[in-house]
């Protein structure tokens, strides 16, 4: 059982992006569109692979968003990533851990890495110990949807991809997992994810 973190165990940062855009009078979805443009090599991708520092990320993101219609500083986006933990998902994870191997693959930024000062509130230690193995993009220099990151996880857990379930809130990150043979669940809410998980595992999770 392999989980993404943000948008799965926490509420989606997209809600915070939308609030920020409205408050600043920015074009709707400018942050998401900036993240999506050239998504393998843009400022976000480079920062998640720890190839650039926070100053460079701030400038690159500003230039990329400006090219799409409005300047947004990268530094201003970082505080918006702190989704709230979904307690029902944490409870489901506890029940799953009692029966199955668990892993977490997270695309995160060096500023939000587990154990970093700013990241502590986002990666709550007691949730992270529920995973047998955690892979953070900012620590290994690879990020989803690179197929290698999924292979690393199944090799470390010593599991067959065909018997794995993978959850993520982004379709683009589900595709490589599905191609490896995993059952995939696109998370839109905690309630929906738990219902789909119960179906996929046969476990009672709520």
Automatic annotation (TrEMBL):
Pfam families: Hydrolase
The UniProt record lists the keyword Hydrolase: yes
Residues spanning the signal sequence: none
Keywords: Acetylation, Hydrolase
Protein name (record): HAD family hydrolase
GO molecular function, one term: hydrolase activity
Keyword Isomerase: no
InterPro entries, per the entry: ACAD10-like, HAD-like_sf, HAD-SF_hydro_IA, HAD-SF_ppase_IA/epoxid_hydro_N, HAD_sf, PGP-like_dom2
